[in-house]
Each structure stands twice: as C-alpha cells, then as structure tokens.
Amino acid sequence: MKYYCIGIKGSGMSTLAQMLYDMGNDVTGYDDAKDYKFTEKGLEKRGIKIFYDQNHEIDRDTIVTASRAFNDNHPEIKRVKELGLTIKPYNEVVGEITKKFKTISISGTHGKTTTTSILKHLFTNTVGCNYFIGDGSGHIDMKNELLVIESDEFNRHFLAYYPTTAIITCIELEHTEIYKDIEDTINTFAKFANKASVVIANGDDENVRKIKFNNKVIFYGENNNNDYIIKNIKLETTGSSFDLYEKDKFIDTFYIPLYGHHMVMNTASAIIEALKEGLKKEQIREILPSFKNAARRFSEKIIKNTIIIDDYAHHPTEIKVTLEAIRQKYPNKRLTVVFRPNTYSRTSFFKKEFADSLSIADKVYITPIKCDRENKNDYPKIESEDIIELISNSEIVDDDCTDKILKDKDGVVTFMGCATVSHLIENFIKNLESIE
C-alpha cells in the first residue's frame, strides 16, 4: 500500500511513517519545516522521501494521514482533498497497527516515552519487540509478537488503540484545550484502560485510583496497598536504585542510570510488565544498567566545561521533577534553565505553576510562546513576560540573543520545551565555542 504522511517530521508522524515502511508499504511525506530535525534520522535511514512544496504527484490509491498541526486551510491539505483523496486520522492508522500484535500501550500524563523506551530496551535484548516511541523512533518486524507503544492522550488519540496490556504512569490535567477538567481526563483514561485485558497502574496516584476498572489491575508504588511495592529508593549522583517487592515477597534490587523519583516509578512499571511477559529478574537486572534514554529526555553534552541538557519537559510537573533530577546528578553546580512555552492554552492555565517549577533553577530564561495549532486570540491574553514577573532572576531570551546566557556557562544549562529548542542550543554552542 502507499501512504503519504503530512507533517512527517513531527515525532509521532515520523515514527508512524517508519513503522509503515517496515511493514512493506511505500511511504512518502510532506512537511513545512525545511530545517533538519532529530526525527528525520529514522526517515533518512529508510530512504523515505520528504516533499516541501505542492509540485509533486500523488497517486490516486494513496492513503493520506496528517498531523493535527495542518488544518483544512493548509495548501497541501487542500490539494489532497481536491485530488479526491481521503485523509485518514493519524491515530486510526496507528490503531490499525496495534491490532496486528500483542500490544503493550504505555500511557500517562508524564513518563510515557521513558517507560516505553525501557521496555523496548528490555525486550529487544531478549525476546524481541516492535516499538513506537514519541521521540521519532519506530520499528516493525512482522516476526515479533510484541509491540510496545507510547500511547498519547492528546486529542484522545489513544482511544483508537487496541492494547492487550495498558500501563498508566500517572494522571494529571495537561491538554487544557482538549479536556475540560481533571474528571474528563480521568474518564478518558478509564475508557482507554478498560480496552485492555490487564492494566499496570501507579497505585500511589490518587487520580489513577479513581478509575473504575473492569479488568485485571496490577497496582505498583511505595504505598502498602499496592500489589508491587517499591522500597529503599536511593537517588545518587550515578543513578537510582530501589528494591521491588510483590507484596511481602522480595524480588530484587534494581539499578537504572536515570535520575529522579519519577524515573524509579517508571522503571518499576516496566519491570513488572517484563516479568509478566516471562523475563527473569536476573535478565532485567543485568540489562537495565546499559539503558540510554530516548532523544530529548535528559540528553547531555559537555562543551568547554559547560554541561548542556536538552529535555522535552513542557508541563510544570515535568519541569519540576527534571530540575530536581539535575540537582540529584549535579548537586554542586549552578543550574540555569532556558524554557520555551508551547500553546497559549497550557501557558495561560499553568502560569503560576510554571513559575513555581522554574524557580527551582538559579537562573531562568523564557522564550516567547511557541504554538503551531492554536489561535492566540482564542485564549486569555498571555505572554512569557507574565511568567517572568513571578520569577526572580529571570528574563526573556530567543534564538538571536543566546549570547546573554554565556554568563551562566560555568554550570548546567538546561533547555526545555516540547517545541523545538534546537536553534537555541545551536546558537548557544556557537557562542560558547567562539570564546577563546
């Protein structure tokens, strides 16, 4: 079959394109962004062609799928409709793939990408698996029985999936342009979870506990009312370790080269699923230390003694736990954060929470708000300056003025946001390297 993916450089669409290609389909795509993005790596490897204009032909038997960032007024959307082609929703195409395998769907407001990546690491080093990870990496081998897939609640996408097992890492209000309140969010997660035969859920999360499950549920957490209990957590500069129990039965002590309490919770859920699929605890214990996280998840590089971290964090909770994790690894370093807010709805709703979380850093820089899918006039007036007013030692920065960050070079400089921060990082590195 032939597929045409509009918005192919988006992390989810890039991943889908790679999986469709691996399944033997002819895949091409379109994107507005001509600059190189990290999501292109898998596309380049497969030789998937990307178009940037409306001058190429599209066969009549092509199935078109498009990112939500491309509305009906976009020239390429108009063109495929004029050609008489039907646009199939992105999540429905993904859902059709989940039907073909024993699918493990990893959901949650936070932690989806890392948990999916840990499971991919465990399974690819043992029984083999297919995977869909929101950092733009996907893989299909039709011989594999398992599919691990990051299952996003944005636009209720994951309701189109068909999981055998569902993992819920946590539930919090996030996409305020989609969900009217936390109850709406919880109810949607319930619909998703109850499609699975088994659910592995964070039992310490009060919103997860509000779900009325109609299937088998395995709860995990630190509280004694869980089925699997995490004890003796040690958060050290080299990583994190913990003991895992099945009720009173000690399973083992596990180490993961990740930072923060939230990473312990994510790892525990992955271990429980791996044990359920038949992996031995000894295998898991031996494989976990070699884990490397997904792209833009605590990604580090050192330039002239400056530690640069690139992270996808874009919600106040994610910012908080990531900055705390950096403090865990680098307790004696000055911490600077450069944050790019994404969407007017989220920035407006969480203005104070963003300020509180960012204040963990010693110095804060915030860029103007980035948004591809919202009309600014549809939401309460909000600017990045409204957050800066709530944070001491903070100021505006953008791609063309990263030189001001140089005064914070003797420490950790963290770039955060789900919208791309690559130009900020590139310009900052150029400024760093120009210093003699």
Structural write-up:
The chain folds into three domains: 2-88, NAD(P)-binding Rossmann-like Domain (Rossmann fold); 93-290, Mur-like, catalytic domain (UDP-N-acetylmuramoyl-L-alanine:D-glutamate ligase, 3-Layer(aba) Sandwich), CATH 3.40.1190.10; 299-433, Protein-Tyrosine Phosphatase, Chain A (Alpha-Beta Complex), CATH 3.90.190. The mean pLDDT is 94. It has helices at residues 11-22, 41-46, 75-82, 90-98, 112-124, 182-193, 206-209, 261-276, 281-287, 316-329, 344-349, 351-358, 384-388, 422-433, and strands at 2-6, 26-30, 49-51, 62-66, 102-107, 130-133, 137-139, 146-150, 165-168, 198-202, 216-221, 228-236, 239-246, 249-256, 299-303, 306-311, 335-339, 363-366, 394-396, 412-416. The chain has a ten-stranded mixed beta sheet, with helices on both faces. Strands 15-16-20-17-18-19 form a six-stranded mixed beta sheet, sandwiched between helices. A four-stranded parallel beta sheet has the order 3-2-1-4, sandwiched between helices. The protein contains 14 helices and 20 strands.
